[in-house]
Amino acid sequence: QSGLGILEVIAILAILGILSLVAIFSIETLRQKARDAERVSDMNTIGTAYNKIIFEYGDYLASGCSLGHVHACSGNLEMMKVLPVIGGIKDPTYENSTEPCSFELCRAGVSSCDYALLEQTETYFEILFNLEHGVDDYGEKGCYLLTPIGIQKID
């Protein structure tokens, strides 16, 4: 008898199905890591802008940003001077209905939220953001804070 029997065909299809699932999960992990790399890059850019604000104006309040969505700072001239693209800096998964990150969303394990300015004083600021998988120096998924001293994971 030549050709493949029904059991061989079923075995081949099962193997192909398993390989397809592995590939799909690997691709999704790579996408999450790419989005996380973009998030960390965005935070470094925003941190640099805040450093320029403190250097040029003497305090963080000069940014004129309001608490909430970070991209909402685009209406402020001082922040626009140091970071003209601030209006386009949003979480990579941002949609119009995306909530700004909050500690409550972090505790609930929400994986998608927009960058949020939580606190801003003359000498301090906090921006909350979320990593889906973790990347580079920030290898764990979860919520992180950007402050004047850098990025730290929060528990």
Question: How would you explain this protein's 3D organization?
Answer:
There is one protein chain. This protein is α+β, with helices and mostly antiparallel strands and 155 residues long. The protein has three helices and five strands. Strands 1-2-3-4-5 form a five-stranded antiparallel beta sheet, covered by helices on one side. A hairpin with a 4-residue loop joins strand 2 (116-120) and strand 3 (125-131). The longest helix has 52 residues, at 6-57. The model has no long low-confidence stretch (mean pLDDT 89).
Short description:
Helix content is 41%, strand content 15%.
Please bin the fraction of helical residues. Answer: 40-55%
Total number of strands = 5
Fraction in beta strands: 15-25%
What is the overall number of helices? 3
- Category from helices, strands and their pairing: alpha+beta
Question: What is the residue-mean pLDDT, rounded to a whole number?
Answer: 89
The main β sheet shows up as: 5 strands, antiparallel
Instruction: Summarize the helix and strand pattern as letters.
Output: HEHHEEEE
What shape does the CA trace take? elongated
Distance between the termini: 64 Å
Side-by-side strand order of the widest sheet: 1-2-3-4-5
- Rounded to the nearest angstrom, the radius of gyration is 22 Å
Q: Which regions have little confidence, pLDDT < 50, spanning 5+ residues?
A: none
